[in-house]
Amino acid sequence: MRRHIAVALLILTSSTAPLTARAAESSHFVPGIWSIRDFFAPDPGFYGVLYNYYYTTDRINDRHGDKIRSVTINPGPGPGLTVDTSIDVDLYALAPALIWVSNWRILGAKFGAYVAPTFANTSLEAKLSIADDIGGKIENDSTMGVGDLYVQPVWLDWTPDHWDIMLSYGFYAPVGRYDTRKVNFPNLGRSIEVESADNLGLGFWTHQFQAGLAWYPWLNKATVVTSVVTYEINQQKEDFDLTPGQNLSFNWGISQYLPLTKDQHLLLELGPAGYCSWQTTRDTGSAPAVGTARDQVQAAGGQIGLTYVPWVLVFNFHAFAEFASEDRFQGQVYGINLVKKLF
Predict the structure, then answer these.
(1) Which of 266, 250, 277 is nearest to 315 (CA)?
(2) Taking the model in full, what pTM does it have?
């Protein structure tokens, strides 16, 4: 769901020669989607979840954390060409999820699983001023459709007093629209294979491992401090010789319930939250998009929401501002999440 759409702009230029700056490949896990308590298995039953994710940015940073304002192309002798860049990316993704938590235990832990298809509506507004003798062209693009599928068949949660200890395994299946195309450069006498700008899937499988810890100072669990580590192992892209590097993400949050009614049926939930993400290994392959830099980003924000206890109905809004981004986008995240126990 985290599709680095503006990378397509830089691939066009990187296909001709070395660049002064470029963006790294994206990975599947999006640390800004989940609410603070969502990483830990709820009480046994079936749950329906609706994640709404919105990402906006007009900034893409180089490997040093500086905003990329131009790209230099050097196809041969001479100083090369300077390409001015202007990026305005807005991404909306909808991820409905079906969660099942069993009544039986494995090694003393609650056992659950869930599946989450994704649907994305992306809007890209970008322009490159490329010299006429290169003949490059970027068009505004707006697409809507099915993204990649996430399946988590193993979800274990141990619940000693004052704690939740979570381990999980899941995978992303590349079912979203993904294709490559050739970009012709007549004056250079060559064409380059690049990923299509209207892709909604990432075109590769990912194995995801998670471990989380939640601490409840009081047994009523009104207050919780959470930390979750996610590690992704990415496979090679389809029809494209590029394997994105592996990623490590860290989510943290503090959630507090405050009763709004005397019977405590309606609860206000609020608290700070944030995430960090690091690419731990380099992208590999022979495709033009392969680079040596590793991306990273930090973000901080918070969430506020309502829980109606008799219906097991939860509504949350959260927002994050990214900073210290390197070799990737730096923007703002907004999310509205709805959870309902079905039976």
Answers:
(1) 266
(2) 0.84
Pick the closest to residue 128 from 137, 118, 119, 120 (CA basis): 137
In one-letter notation, the amino acid at residue 291 is G
The CA distance from 297 to 34, in Å, is 17
Higher pLDDT, 236 or 181: 236
How would you classify the pairing of strands 70-73 and 119-129?
unpaired
150 - beta bridge partners? Answer: 116, 172
Overall fold of domain 7-341:
Lipocalin (2.40.128)
Spatial distance between the Cα atoms of 99 and 144, rounded to a whole number of angstroms: 25
Q: Which residues of 121-154 are buried (b: 16+ CB within 10 A; e: fewer)?
A: ebbbebebebeeebebebeeeebeeebbbbebee
Residue 161 buriedness (CB in 10 A; 0-12 / 13-18 / 19+): exposed
d(C-alpha 47, C-alpha 100), whole Å: 6
Q: Which of 16-25, 105-114, 183-192, 331-340 has the lowest mean pLDDT?
A: 16-25
Mean pLDDT of 43-60: 94
Under a CB-based contact definition with an 8 Å cutoff, are residues 171 and 148 in contact?
no
**How much is the mean pLDDT over the chain?**
83
Instruction: Give SS3 for 311.
Output: helix
Domain locations in the chain? Answer: 7-341
pLDDT reading at 7 higher than 90: no
What's the pLDDT band for 130 if we cut at 50, 70, 90?
very low
